[in-house]
Give the backbone structure.
Amino acid sequence: MVLPRRRGACQRLEIDGSPLEASLRWTGDHEGVLTVNGREHPVAAAQDGPMLFVHLEGRTWRIECVRGFADRSEGGGADGGIRAPMPGVAVEIEVSVGDQVEANQRLALIESMKMQTEIKAPVAGTVRAVRVAPGDSFERGAVLIEVEGNP
Amino acid sequence: MTAVPQPLFPKVLVANRGEIARRVLRCLRALGIPSAVVYHDADRRSPAVAETDEAVEISGASPTAAYLDIEQIVSACARLGVAAVHPGYGFLAENAAFAKALADAGITFIGPSAEVMELMGDKIAARQFVAEHGFPVPPSVELAASDAGFAQAAADLGFPLVVKASAGGGGKGMNIVRQADELDGALRVAASEAERYFGDGRIYVERYFTDIRHIEVQVLGDGERAVHLGERECSVQRRFQKVVEEAPSPAIDHTMRTRLGEAAVGIASAAAYQGAGTVEFLHTPEGEFFFLEMNTRIQVEHPVTELVYGVDLVAEQVRIAAGQPLSLRQDELRPNGHAIECRLCAEDAANGFLPETGRILHLKEAEGEGIRVDSGLHPGQEITAAFDPLLAKVVAHGPTRQAAIDRTLGALRDTVVLGVGTNAAYLAAILAHPAFARGATDTGFLDRHQAELLTAPPTDAVAKALAAAHLADRQTRLIDAAMPSLHAAMGAWTN
Amino acid sequence: MRRIETRISPSSASYRAYRAHNLKVVGEFQARQRAARLDRPDRDRERLARQDKQMPRERLEQLLDPGTPFLEFSSLAANMAYDGGSPSASCITGIGVVGGREVVINCSDPSVKGGAWYPLTVKKMIRALDIAIENRLPVVHLCDSAGAFLPLQSDLFADKAMAGRIFRNQCQLSKLGCKQLALVFGHCTAGGAYIPTLSDYSVIVEGTGAVFLGGPPLVKAATGEEVTVDELGGARMHTSVSGTCDFYAANEAEAIAIGREVVMQWEQREKFPLQREAPEAPWYDPEDLYGIIPDDVRKQFDMREVIARIVDGSRLAEYQPDYGDTLVCGFANLWGYKVGVLGNNGVLFNDSSLKAAHFMELCNQNRVPLVFFQNITGYMVGREYERRGITKDGAKMIMVQACSEVPKFTVMTNGSYGAGNYGMCGRAFDARLLFSWPHSRISVMGEEQAANTLVTIKVAQLKREGLTPDEAELEQIRADVLANYENTTSAYYATSELWDDGILDPVDTRNALGMGIEAALNAPFGEPRYGVLRL
């Protein structure tokens, strides 16, 4: 748990209860110098959504950022229900209940206003419910497919 | 007028992807041979496609299926007018049907003849061939599983046993049996798996040696003559998959090297072997060795041999395929120093080695004296479960084994792959382990030292990494950029 | 600029006595503040939990950037009203940081009578929006209110400074380009419905959030129509049918996250380029303030000692140090920002009044904000001073102060009596922020004088009725008058009635003023211009 106590050029952080002074000077898009309690370490870092990758002292860390203040969940609602972005008709349903899906995997194709839109899995997980069949029409916001994210 | 030297082939196609495709392309460029590759859409932006002269897209139900599609690849070759194909390793590298299809189209397959590939690809036949030529093979049951007396014969070998698919190899299609009552089930599972994976249900049973060394010998042959380029030690394995390889083996002295080398050259010569090949042996603590299998392709771990012997094995493959006689002489091939290779993989060592997926967000390959990184990665690349989890090979050469270890550790530290979890820390822990430093490596090494190799990082390292993550976080940076310095300096104050 | 030389000694008997006294005073203040902020009956907590609602301070904690300051206003508003039925006047206001941007917070407190608006709730909300207007700050409203507290509706509805002013202020803010975001966590009924609708952006939470002019019972009574809360003004309806709200949120956390995203898109305007140096902590320990402020409001102290515990490096470039010495004037830096400081060191005489007027003119010319440290019994009275024109000179001071275009800040450090309160930028004179220290007292005249005056009047009244009170009766009258007077002259009463922006622990003064100055830089400083000065 990282608790910033003071921000700015040199931040005072409380990490798992211990205080620490740290700053990061970027030397490139992903590379910089981390100073912790006065000692410098070369560091590389990159971010993909809430996931941060840090290379420090020969070790690569994958750190998921779970914020003390709220973070907007990406993709579908918190219930895992993938909602229709617009009213339309289901054209293809490519998964069935129990299927394992990858994040961003195409789950269905819907058509609305003569335009086809792919419905993708917001997270990697298991398909819990398929609420529409090809040919079914639905309203905007209707839950089409429910995916339960992998723990 | 000066004569322009003719290239060995007018054009060579690389029927592979990733690091090995790049490795072969690098060699072709050095040899002045125009190159081409086939690629699946998933590799459209890969360095191999960027670095080749011509690239042709192939498709398939899955990316892997595309690279296994003989018909498509052969027709791409015809279209491009290539004279030869380098298959790399994996995919079609040991596929005799592919070699035949190319031959039918008048294209050279850079590798041994289809017949030798078929011989060595059939593990039962290969064992018999080697045994017939007087080289040692592990004790095994010669009967078919359905034959009467099989169970007794198996039990006579002594447990544990390993059940292998005849069409397997490279660690695939293997099942260990530790006691008699497991045998029946294991045979059935193995046979059905062999049928399913290799389309060949034949299996065989060998004595399984635990805590043994896996030593392999690199050979080159031109059909007339063969030489060996010493051994590679590949004992550091997990589930029959090599993790760290080195050359020479800390357990092999000159006498043993000569014996192994002679055996390997003997087997290659008996097969009139053409090209680069690897003869794998089991090496017991008592100094016995047994033939395991022969791989008729360039090996993943070939760089350690190249660094120690100063030979470009891929270039040798191309020269031999072009019909040139082997120019290397056994008495001139002497090992120099030591080399180590680590397989950097997208897997979570701390979590049961589950494959990791993600997108390469940032990449920096290590460089420096004696360091070689073979990688086919590029920023933005999606790492999916579609391919092998191998991301890059981090290799280092040094005058001594310890120097090579230190350089490899340094190279691992300096290799930055962000966006997907890797086993880099696990590899470093292996190299830094005192048992590894002593050269006490065998196939039980990783299991035996599992706990030490997977220790949690120290608290202060965690704190530093968390601090770096917090400071690198986009939210933090946006907030800090927007915030008046007074609020930054005041910190979490409230009245 | 020289460091103020302190004359106090932490080992002195008075320092130790004052410190003991003031720690008790501050301890009591903090206990009362903590109770107002956090003490709620279990049934209210349980009700919120049942509704899947968080406590308002939990919402705030998620909204504000971690590691940043929050200046809360008037935490003890209404502490002496409604028998304590409306702690903090049932709402939380302040300046905080969201996505690096300073914003005014206007947060309902549904843990008190469903967040119903008392008259002082309305006053506090209006004040928060006034602060936003004066400083050109954006506002984030966290809405969850049952609406007006009906038993007191006549005290909160119709007048100029009552509920309508909230909406008027919202419109003014929008006109000034100050963004407003409403996060609708609970019901916004009737007038309250206009808070999200007059905001530039709004987010509404599924299930608990609702916006409507009349709730289902009122609709049933008015038209006979039976309708559910969700149909009438729920999240789905307002974000997909009526367009009344902009963003749908599945829960409170998501609403806050969307809100943060919205705020992080807002433009950041150039701030007023106030002279600034690198900030520096005071040379002397601010905790010394406890040993400087005497244990009796009538005891005098040197305001320089106070200033030295608040400004950067304890440095003050004193102006006219040898003239009008009952008023200390000078330039200092506070969190690096240049400020003009005025502090009382006694009664205001002709010379100190003229010095104040001139110094404030200098600050306006220099574009330097003014900070007043009040400890004032008033302007000097008596024949000699009237003949010298003390009222006329006091008027000059009041005129220049009232017409000052630079931001002003006032701290009630001790006593604030009579016209001195006006000259030193009391509440009526639009200090951007005005804070009281917990022991401070404020009234039209000193307590003893006032009590004596009132006793004199009372006795005269009794005598007219033919009664002659004896000594004991006189003493009783005196005690009653004094008790009542003391009650209404305390800082707690002042802050209860929103005569200030809150009571501060003296050691927090530096940060509170820093936050105020930083906020003030969002609005342009006007050109110096005054009314007619009686010369």
